[in-house]
């Protein structure tokens, strides 16, 4: 269930109803679709966030802008080959588990890697579009056609990955609450911030310390530590 921005159930009497038509007119159908799957776990209620939907729009704009840095190189670049295989595995597994929010978060992290590198190969873009297509079908089809890929994107096979290229070194990540270590958890080195934080929130030693309290800040230092600031 999607709640109003004030965290209450949407109701005309409360004046907190969001009209989907207004959102589509302002941000586009793909952004609306993407945000609804990014907002949180399907099993849990989540409040509407205008700033978050703007973030989804920026992500799709950055996806379209990949056309400006795509090159004709075949295959995956050596720098991003492992990341691409991990992304395919992550998105595939998350879709099966109905964890669309973490699948989208992984793609958001991947696009940062493209821009950090300054280029994207045609095969990297092709795979990225195939993974994103279930969440944003219109823009991915448009980019697909612009790139000159054969057929329609919806008729293509799902990308495959090499399990041996998805392996990461496992590390033990300390979890703090208000600066004090309360738990640790084993994660893959290089884990995405969103995924690490969501995993930490579900730990038995952490949940009682943050549930029902105001979560002021979530601090994640990659491969080093997570700190929840609550009051």
From TrEMBL:
GO terms for biological process: leucyl-tRNA aminoacylation. Its EC number is 6.1.1.4. One of its GO terms (molecular function) is leucine-tRNA ligase activity. Gene3D superfamilies: Isoleucyl-tRNA Synthetase, Domain 1. Keywords: Aminoacyl-tRNA synthetase, ATP-binding, Ligase, Nucleotide-binding, Protein biosynthesis. One of its GO terms (cellular component) is cytosol. It is an enzyme of class 6 (ligase). The keyword Protein biosynthesis applies. InterPro entries: aa-tRNA-synth_Ia, Leu-tRNA-ligase, M/V/L/I-tRNA-synth_anticd-bd, tRNAsynth_Ia_anticodon-bd. Residues 1-36 form the Aminoacyl-tRNA synthetase class Ia domain. Residues 81-191 form the Methionyl/Valyl/Leucyl/Isoleucyl-tRNA synthetase anticodon-binding domain. Pfam families: Anticodon_1, tRNA-synt_1. It catalyses: tRNA(Leu) + L-leucine + ATP = L-leucyl-tRNA(Leu) + AMP + diphosphate. Belongs to the class-I aminoacyl-tRNA synthetase family. This is leucine--tRNA ligase. It comes from bioreactor metagenome. The gene is leuS_39.
């Amino acid at each position: 269930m999607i709640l109003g921005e004030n965290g209450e159930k949407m109701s005309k009497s409360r004046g907190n109803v969001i009209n989907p038509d207004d959102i589509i007119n302002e941000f586009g159908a793909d952004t609306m679709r993407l945000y609804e799957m990014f907002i949180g776990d399907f099993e849990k209620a989540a409040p509407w966030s205008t700033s978050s939907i703007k973030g989804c729009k920026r992500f799709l704009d950055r996806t379209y802008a990949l056309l400006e840095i795509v090159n004709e190189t075949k295959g995956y670049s050596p720098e991003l080959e492992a990341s691409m295989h991990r992304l395919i595995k992550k998105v595939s597994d998350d879709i099966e588990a109905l964890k669309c929010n973490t699948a989208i978060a992984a793609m958001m992290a991947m696009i940062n890697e493209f821009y950090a590198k300054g280029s994207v190969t045609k095969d990297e873009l092709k795979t990225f579009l195939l993974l994103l297509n279930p969440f944003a079908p219109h823009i991915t089809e448009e980019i697909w056609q612009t790139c000159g890929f054969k057929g329609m994107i919806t008729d293509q096979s799902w990308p495959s990955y090499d399990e041996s290229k998805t392996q990461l070194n496992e590390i033990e990540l300390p979890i703090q609450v208000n600066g004090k270590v309360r738990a640790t958890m084993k994660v893959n080195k290089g884990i995405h911030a969103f995924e690490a934080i969501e995993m930490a929130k579900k730990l038995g030693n952490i949940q009682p310390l943050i549930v029902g309290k105001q979560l002021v800040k979530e601090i994640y230092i990659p491969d080093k530590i997570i700190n929840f600031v609550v009051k």
